[in-house]
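It is worth pausing here to work through a concrete case rather than discussing structure prediction in the abstract. The textbook approach is simple: state the sequence, then state the predicted structure, then interpret. We follow exactly that order.
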Amino acid sequence: MVVPLSYFRSKTSQRLREAGRMEAHADVRALTILRILDRKAILNLPAHERIVSCHDRDILDKWLDRAITATSLDDLFHDTES
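Step two, the predicted structure:
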């Protein structure tokens, strides 16, 4: 039995793979932010939910940078809507 492989090279397939990679990167960012905040003992449930529900790469990058020096959740979330 021969299986056509053209789908795996199609633009649709490439877009789906790229979307999966982007989502995986967002998940890693969110988990890293959570770990940093947890180690600093400033993580709470609403913040946890806000971070894991965010899929905006730019916002997650901003939060990750801020998490390194944050001493409170206000330090992390100031001026971001998501």
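Step three, interpretation. The chain has five helices and no strands. The helical segments are 6-9, 11-39, 45-53, 57-69, 73-77.
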